[in-house]
Amino acid sequence: MLLILVACFCFWQSSRQGDGLLRLRAAYKLDAGQPLENAPPMLVFTTVALGGFSGLLADMLWLRVSFLQDEDRYFELVQLSDWISKLEPRCPEVWAFHAWNMSYNISVMMGDMDDRWRWVMSGVSLLRDDGLRFNPGDGKLCGELAWIYQFKIGGNTDGAHKIYKKKLADEIGLVLKDGRFDYDAVMGDPSTARRLRGELKLQPAIMREVDLKYGPLDWRVPEAHAVYWAYIGRQKAKGQDRTDCERIIYQSMAGNFLRGRLVFKPSVNIYLSTPNVDLLPSAMKTYESAIERLQDPGMKVAYRYFLNEAIAVLVRLRQTDKAKETFKVLRDRYPKETGADFELHLKTADYVDLLGRIYTEFEDPAEAAGEKPASENWVVMGTQMSVSVAGNDRNRLMEYVRECKAVSKKLEELFSVFRADSEVTFINQSAGWSPVNISQQTEEVLLHSLRYSELSGGTFDITVAPLVRFWGFNRGPVPEKLPDSAEVEKVRKLVGYSNLSVSNGSAFLMMSDMSIDLGGIAKGYAVDVCYKRLVDLGGSSFMVDLGGNLRCAGDAGGRPWRVGIRNPFDKADIIGTLALTNGMATGTSGNYEKYIMIGNERFTHIINPRTGYPVKGMAGVTIVSTNAVDTEGMSKPLFIVGVQGASSLLAKVPGCEAILIPDKQPVEIFVSPGMRAIFQPDPAFSDKVKPIE
Question: The dihedral of CA 635, 637, 638, 642: what is its sign?
Answer without folding.
Answer: positive
